[in-house]
Amino acid sequence: MNLTHLDENDRPKMVDVSIKDDTTRVATASGTITVTQEAYDAVVENRAKKGPVLQTAVIAAIQGAKKTSELIPMCHPLMLTSVKIDVAELPELPGFKLSATAKLVGKTGVEMEALTAVSTGLLTIYDMLKAIDKGMVIGPIQLEEKSGGKSGDFRRAN
C-alpha cells in the first residue's frame, strides 16, 4: 500500500498537489451537542452569562475553518472562498446541530475545513455553557457530503 503522506524513507510529508487541476470543491459537515434543559433554555432565551452563544459559535466555526492547516499537520493552507455555518435548535435532545459548508476553487479538498469548523463551533458552545452544564456531549461529528476533485462526490446515506 502506497501511503501519500510518507516519502520513500517512511518520513512524513505533505502531498504535492501542484500537478492537480483547480476545481470547485465543496464539503459539508455536521455535529451535535446535547445539553441539559437548563443550558438549552439559557441559549434560546439569550440568558447565558458569557453572551450570545450561537452567534459566537458561528464566528468560532468560521475561524476554525480558516485555521485548519495550523491545527492538522498535513493539511494545506487553503484560500477558502466561502464558509457557511448553520445552527439548528434541537429541543427534543435538548441541544443544537451545527453544520458547516466550506468552498473553494483549488487543488485539494475542503473536508477537513468543514469538519474543523463544526468541531470548533461545538467546542465554543461547550465553553460558553460549561458553568451551567459540565456533562454536555459532543458528537457525532461527520462529513455529510463533498464534491469536486479526483475522488468524486460523496453523500452520506441517511
Low-confidence stretches: none
Shape: elongated
| Domains (count) | 1
Beta-strand percentage? 25-35%
Q: Roughly what percent helix?
A: 25-40%
* Secondary-structure element series: EHHHEEHEE
| Strands in their spatial order, largest beta sheet | 2-3-1-4-5
Distance between the termini: 31 Å
What structural category do the secondary elements indicate?
Answer: alpha+beta
Task: Give the biggest sheet.
Answer: 5 strands, antiparallel
Name of the CATH superfamily: Molybdopterin cofactor biosynthesis C (MoaC) domain
Average of per-residue pLDDT values: 93
- Give the CATH level 1 class: Alpha Beta
**Number of E-state strands:** 5
What's the number of helices?
4
What Rg is obtained from the alpha carbons, in whole angstroms? Answer: 18 Å
- CATH topology category name: Alpha-Beta Plaits
The name of the CATH architecture is 2-Layer Sandwich
Describe the fold and architecture.
This protein is α+β, with helices and mostly antiparallel strands and 158 residues long. It has a single domain, classed as Alpha-Beta Plaits (2-Layer Sandwich). Helices cover 28% and strands 29% of the residues. It is built from 4 helices and 5 strands, in the order E-H-H-H-E-E-H-E-E. It has helices at residues 37-44, 53-66, 68-71, 111-129; strands spanning 23-34, 82-90, 95-106, 137-147, 154-155. A 5-stranded antiparallel beta sheet has the order 2-3-1-4-5. Helix 2 packs antiparallel against helix 4 (111-129). It starts with 22 loop residues before the first strand and ends with a strand.
